[in-house]
Amino acid sequence: MPLKHAKNIIATAAPVQSIPAASRAYDWMDALRMLAAVVVLLNHVRDLLWVDYNGERIWAPVYFMAGYGHEAVMIFFVLSGFWITGSVMRRIDRPDFWQRYMLDRLSRLYVVLIPALLLGGVLDYVGSVVMNWPLYSGESGAHTVEMAVRDRLGLGTLLINLAFLQGLVGPTFGSNGPLWSLAYEFWFYAWFPAIAFVIVQRRFTLIAVSLLLAWFYPQVTLGFMSWLMGTALYFAIIRYQSVMDRIGAKPKRWLAGMLLLNLVVLLYTRTVAGAASDLLVAVCFTGLLFVAISATHWLPSAPRFLVLLGKQGSFSLYAIHFPIAIFVCSALLAMLGGERLQPSFASLGAMVAIMVTIVGIAYYFAKLTEARTPLYRDRATRSFARFYPTRSDGA
Prior knowledge:
The protein has helices spanning about 5-10, 25-50, 60-65, 70-90, 95-130, 155-160, 180-200, 215, 220-240, 240-250, 250-270, 275-295, 305-310, 315-335, 345-370, 375-385. It contains 16 helices and no strands. Helices cover about 70% and strands about 0% of the residues. About 40% of the residues are buried. The longest helix has about 35 residues, at about 95-130.
């Protein structure tokens, strides 16, 4: 696409987030964010608590649903790409864009990440060093913990995670393997506006140097392609209003078709894994969101509790669930002999109880962290302004 055409599209991007008619579809996006976090939670609790699938068909649905944790992360990427693109486009022409944008993003991330690392570190130390529970050794058979957790509790590893380099130059901190995607997200946050700044302002920024990471870490680049599907959705809403009108005229048919396509793709990814399947999931999910936004007038209201949890607690749930899950599962297994459990209705009940408990903990954790993001962001902005006055060119 020529730069002048891209700039014309970008110039009309700001109103997208304020379309009142799309609010119902946006609620569903928040609800889906929470559901995706719960799928990731199910994936990990199942692996920690139950043995691998032994062929009993009655338990196949649980194992099957729990296997979609990675696909759920691709859904996170698409949703993140959509919302962040809107945030960038609304203020990219401001002279203080980079200062405010990076303060916003870092405030959003650190207000959850720092307490999550501290909480996880304490739980991991107790579980792996004090109690020496089997799950923490990496030899229990659980696929989500294949290393000795105590070996990943050092200061160096902590600093790597604080610098969003986990999974790139070092491991995730302690048992908290899911934090790999947080490092990806951080670099996506930097890469997209750096690219957009070149298109809109025709200027290079130093942050664009971080794009060199794409050469050294192709797996991050592939994740960025999935994230950019959210960007594509954002601009598709602007450019293809006539298509949206046609979809809105026959919403049931389009929604049914896209839901079926996404179901087929999700079934396909259970047999074919890899970067291509990740991108396929992202593309099809983006198509579903485009149809849902086009048919927002027909959509039923999303469950309010899922919308609120998705907005206020899904990030916290993702960030803290694993250290809590391994600690609770280890304590339970220690009382039952130490080995992972065979599937049964009793152990299924325990799994559900653990998940509900973790969601509850994450909700209150979010009240203390995510809910206070604006407060910490304002403090950081005022402090930054005192030491680094805004430059007129916004570089």
